[in-house]
Specification:
Blueprint: H1 3-22, E1 30-32, E2 43-49, E3 56-58, E4 62-64, E5 74-82, E6 89-95, E7 100-105, E8 118-127, E9 138-145, E10 152-154, E11 160-165, E12 174-175, E13 178-180, H2 185-188, E14 190-195, E15 202-204, E16 209-212, E17 223-232, E18 241-248, E19 254-256, E20 261-264, E21 270-272, E22 278-280, E23 290-298, H3 313-319, E24 326-328, E25 354-357, E26 363-365, E27 377-387, E28 399-407, E29 414-421, E30 424-429, E31 442-448, E32 455-466, E33 471-475, E34 478-479, E35 488-492, E36 504-508, E37 511-513, E38 518-520, E39 524-534, H4 540-546, E40 551-554, E41 566-569, E42 575-580, H5 583-590, E43 594-597, E44 605-617, E45 621-624, E46 628-634, E47 641-645, E48 649-653, E49 661-662, E50 668-674, H6 676-685, E51 691-693, E52 696-705, E53 713-716, H7 719-725, E54 728-732, E55 735-743, H8 744-752, E56 755-758, E57 766-775, E58 780-781, E59 785-792, H9 800-807, H10 809-816, E60 824-825, E61 827-829, E62 835-837, H11 847-871, E63 879-881, H12 912-921, H13 929-932, H14 941-950, E64 953-955, E65 960-961
Parallel strand pairs: 2-9, 11-18, 20-46, 48-59
Antiparallel strand pairs: 1-4, 2-3, 5-8, 6-7, 8-9, 10-13, 12-16, 14-17, 15-16, 17-18, 19-22, 21-43, 23-42, 23-44, 24-39, 25-39, 26-36, 27-32, 27-39, 28-29, 28-36, 29-30, 30-31, 31-35, 32-33, 33-34, 37-38, 40-43, 41-42, 44-45, 44-46, 47-50, 49-56, 50-51, 52-55, 52-57, 53-56, 54-55, 57-58, 57-59, ...
């Protein structure tokens, strides 16, 4: 064998021995720690949050073993060296082939960043060989990351009370501070602050500095409660911190203690407005200062500028004692003798207000209702509300006619006219033609330039003419003093004589152009109570009364005024000026000012009050204080209850109706105002209630159903009594209206004398009369009281029985009468409403004497029957005489009624109203006596009808002497 061969065999055997030797060796495992570039770094770095369980290692933990079988598997890792005691970690193999493993926090243990933030230890892998071999150690670095566990906590949790002066912008009101229990810079820092309270004028920055975004106003809000939260950088929020911002009032010169509103209860008299007020000048005094305080009560929005509309204008005229003969040109529809078609407010609480649009609205006054011509003396008055016509583009200004009397045809002459022109009130009065003054130049036009005409408020205007040389204007009850060229007076000739014009047209709200036959110069505004008084002028006191304001300011402390103080009032007591040098004395007097409303039922709502104050100093320097607004709120008054009662059914024979029948003979009207609390007591306990009687009415309406038939039926009233009381009557086929403010008992007197007459009662069976009364122009209304009249019809065919009965009256009298001696016949009222006659004992006389006495008495009875028609109606009461049974003297009273006029009362009536009642009822009528005597005692209409059927002899209840 060659040398080469021997070498090859030896090499082969060596390799084989080497291989066999390697397979028999147990190798130790090796931990693999390569970075991203596959370099061995021999260290692991891990990160774990303190609330997590598995460490995030880099690179991943792996190990390898070259052995095969179990010797090549990685069974686990062990921590072989730790720098600080026991560790909360364990290593868990997830793949024994690759040696992959994770480091975990041991069960039952947690990490705490605040206690330990880093861990460093060495680990080694070991295989599953027997014995198991370990790798070389590798270092592990683990960093624990903080978690935002705790919210921020305030340095102090006490309620913060901070005082801030009003009227300033403050950048640093205060600074709030908070801390966080977390230790990491990320979560231990406070990153923001928040104001949780919405809509407040404050802001807070990230440093906790609080500032206001606008000037604070103590009068609007003097306290703010803010809730603030702190937020750390992990967005955890703290508990809210409450901050109390108190706004300190900046001392401003002005009034304090003035309430925003003062409630007024009707009927309470005077209510103080500012009993606790004070005036503080904040030390802004000056040399020789003078304090002036002006208090105004503003009532322009109430009615016609003041709470004066308790009654209609017609009732106001009566209450103020106005002259008779005033003609209302704008009456309310229920009182108007002609139809008024103008648009109005349709209100019931006051007189009616009429609107004029300046284009088409007007009212023509009928010739047969109102006399168109004027006399030498007259007064024209009206309420007017008017504004300036800003869109008027006419070259000479538009004329707006309030009232005009002009030619009805052929010509355009204005006989007299009241109109507005360029915010001036103009009155034109052309004299009628007379031969004596044909060429006489006299005043014919008056032009007043006053601010009230176009200020848009209600004002009362009255023009009184007492000959052409005495013309005056009163505005709101005050005479306008004549000045130079105010009024401007224009002279003119009288109207020319003409045969073309035969009549005139009187128009409200426009002017009739007779030549063109159209209306023009339309008025734009509001009118109420337009009236004319002819033949005389109204007194200034009456006009002032019509304008009296029922609500006003009140001051009754004149005795408390010191030297140097002064107080002034306007005529309506709606303005009070207090002036003085001492501030304390000024506000002491202001505390005495009150509000009062004399109306029993005032208009509810608010009244504005304005207080203006000026401090004058030497050298013409003034300190004007801010004006203060307040209000008086008038509460709703308790309304009266008007109750009408009386007999509701009247039944009588048809023969009584041609002469008239009193419908409301026993009417009773009561008006009461009850206290609210007493009404509750009445409901609960039925106790006596607190109430007062209200004794005024202003109208009563009688309605007839079915309506009256003209020429057959009438409603009559006591004309003398109505005229004496100053009442007004309007009638129609549907009924009758009585109007005019007056006492309830006066209305009762009139109503009790209202008669219903029917000359053909046989054609009617029943009639219903409804009565309703009102107060304050319909604001308060009574119940509807109804009376039903039943007409009893009699057979009109004569029969033999009635004829015989009529002819035998004298025989019956002679048969029943017994002799009388000189004794009085006494009539006494029985308890049940009937009357008993005392019977006279028959004397023992002869039969002849008896016959003579019977004949005399019969003749006397016959004379009485003839005379009773004229004398019996003068008595208010008659009595029924009912003779007892089984008496010695017995009357056949089935068809005989005797009424004796008492001698004590004389022959005639001294009361003119009783005489008027006789005229209403008729000279030959005894209709009312059927119910006037004994019906007062009846309880119902049914009782009445029964007693009518059973009535017997009827006597006057006076004493009769024979």
């Amino acid at each position: 064998m060659s040398a080469f061969c021997r070498c090859g065999v030896v090499l082969t055997l060596g390799i084989l021995v080497a291989v066999l030797g390697v397979e028999g060796i147990n190798h130790a495992p090796k931990i693999i720690a390569l970075d991203d570039e596959h370099r061995d770094v021999r260290a692991f770095h891990g990160i774990i949050k303190e609330n997590e369980k598995i460490v995030d290692l880099s690179p991943e933990l792996q190990a390898s073993d070259y052995d095969s079988g179990r010797d090549g598997e990685i069974c686990g890792y062990k921590i072989i060296r730790s720098h600080k005691g026991s560790l909360p970690f364990t290593i868990e193999v997830t793949d024994i082939d690759t040696g992959a493993a994770v480091i975990k926090v041991k069960d039952g243990q947690t990490l705490n960043f605040e206690k330990r933030r880093k861990y460093k230890f060495e680990i080694a892998a070991y295989d599953c060989g027997s014995p198991g071999l370990s790798s070389e150690p590798h270092v592990v670095h683990i960093v624990v990351e903080d978690v935002d566990e705790m919210p921020p906590v305030w340095d102090t949790e006490d309620l913060k009370i901070i005082k801030v002066t009003e009227g300033q912008i403050i950048d640093n009101i205060m600074q709030v501070k908070a801390h966080d229990g977390d230790q990491s810079p990320e979560y231990s820092s406070i990153c923001d602050f928040q104001i949780l309270t919405p809509n407040v004028p404050f802001t807070i920055n990230k440093q906790g500095v609080l500032s206001n975004t606008e000037k604070l106003d103590y009068s609007k809000q003097n306290t703010y409660i803010l809730e603030v939260k702190a937020e750390d950088c992990g967005h955890k929020l703290s508990a809210p911190l409450r901050i109390n911002i108190q706004v300190e009032e900046l001392c401003r010169p002005g009034w304090t203690g003035i309430p925003e509103r003062v409630d007024y209860i009707p009927g309470s008299g005077v209510t103080p407005l500012f009993p606790q007020t004070s005036l503080n000048l904040c030390g802004q005094t000056c040399e020789k200062q003078n304090v002036k305080a002006l208090l105004r009560l503003q009532t322009r929005h109430i009615g016609k500028g003041c709470d004066r509309d308790t009654y209609s204008i017609q009732s106001q005229r009566k209450l103020c004692g106005a002259s008779d003969g005033v003609v209302d040109l704008l009456p309310s529809p229920q009182m108007s003798p002609w139809k008024v078609s103008l648009p109005s407010d349709d209100g019931d609480a006051s007189d009616r207000i009429y609107a004029f649009d300046g284009k088409s609205n007007f009212e023509e006054i009928p010739n047969n209702k109102v006399e168109h011509t004027l006399t030498d003396k007259f007064t024209i008055a009206t309420w007017m509300r008017h504004e300036d016509l800003k869109d008027d583009r006419s070259p000479h200004g538009k004329k707006e006619t309030i009232l005009c009397n002009s030619d009805a045809e052929a010509m355009d002459r204005h006989h007299y006219s009241l109109f507005v022109h360029k915010c001036r009130l103009v009155f034109l009065l052309r004299r009628e033609y007379t031969p004596e003054e044909y060429n006489t130049f006299k005043p014919a036009e008056w032009r007043w330039n006053i601010p009230q005409i176009c200020d848009g408020d209600w004002h009362h205007y009255a023009i009184s003419v007492d000959t052409l040389q005495k013309v005056k204007l009163l505005v709101d009850g005050k005479v306008i003093v004549s000045q130079k060229n105010n009024p401007e007076i224009i002279d003119d000739w009288p109207l020319h004589k003409t045969t073309k014009v035969h009549s005139t047209k009187l128009v409200v709200g426009a002017a009739w152009q007779g030549k063109e036959k159209r209306m023009g110069q339309f008025f734009n505004g509001y009118l109420a109570g337009l009236s004319i008084l002819r033949g005389k002028t109204e007194s200034d006191s009456v006009i002032k009364c019509l304008n009296n304001c029922q609500e006003k300011l009140d001051f009754h402390a004149m005795d408390e005024m010191d030297t140097g103080m002064s107080i002034m009032f306007d005529s309506e007591m709606t303005e009070i000026t207090i002036e003085g040098k001492d501030v304390n004395k000024v506000h002491n007097l202001m505390r005495k000012v009150g509000y009062m409303n004399s109306r029993l039922f005032p208009t509810p709502g608010f009244r504005n009050i304005k207080l203006e104050t000026t401090v004058s100093c030497l050298g013409d320097t003034d300190i004007k204080l801010t004006a203060i607004d307040s209000m008086v709120v008038v509460q709703e008054a308790r309304k009266p209850t008007i109750t009408i009662s009386g007999i509701t059914s009247i039944t009588d024979e048809e023969l009584t109706f041609p002469h008239g029948k009193r419908i409301f003979k026993d009417i009773n009207i009561v008006s009461r105002v009850k206290d609210d609390e007493s009404e509750e007591e009445e409901e609960d306990n039925e106790l006596e209630t607190t109430e007062f009687v209200y004794d005024q009415l202003d109208a009563c309406m009688i309605k007839v159903d079915p309506p009256l038939k003209q020429g057959v039926e009438t409603l009559d009233w006591p004309k003398m009594l109505v005229a004496d009381k100053g009442m007004y009557i309007t009638t129609s086929d549907k009924g009758l209206t009585i109007s005019g403010s007056d006492k309830i008992y006066n209305y009762e007197d009139v109503l009790r004398l209202v008669h219903y007459a029917n000359i053909k009662p046989k054609n009617y069976n029943t009639k219903t009369f409804s009565l309703k009364c009102t107060e304050q122009d319909g604001r308060f209304q009574s119940n509807e009281f109804k009376v039903k009249v039943n007409i009893i019809h009699q057979s009109h065919e004569p029969n033999a029985a009635e004829h015989v009965k009529s002819n035998s009256i004298h025989h019956d009298v002679e048969k029943k009468l017994v002799p009388f001696k000189n004794k009085e016949l006494n009539l006494e009222r029985a308890e049940g409403g009937t009357h008993n006659a005392a019977t006279a004992a028959a004397g023992g006389a002869s039969a002849g004497m008896t016959v003579i006495i019977v004949v005399c008495v019969g003749f006397l009875a016959f004379m009485i029957i003839l005379g009773v028609i004229r004398i019996r109606a003068a008595h208010k009461k008659t009595q029924i005489v009912k003779v007892e049974e089984n008496t010695e003297m017995e009357w056949d009273n089935s068809a005989l009624t005797i009424t004796v006029n008492p001698l004590e009362e004389g022959e005639g009536s001294s009361n003119p109203y009783e005489a008027e009642e006789l005229q209403l009822r008729g000279d030959d009528s005894d209709s009312d006596d059927d119910i006037s005597s004994y019906h007062d005692e009846l309880e119902s209409s049914e009782d009445e009808s029964e007693k009518i059927k059973d009535r017997e002899l009827e006597w006057d209840d006076s004493t009769l002497s024979f």
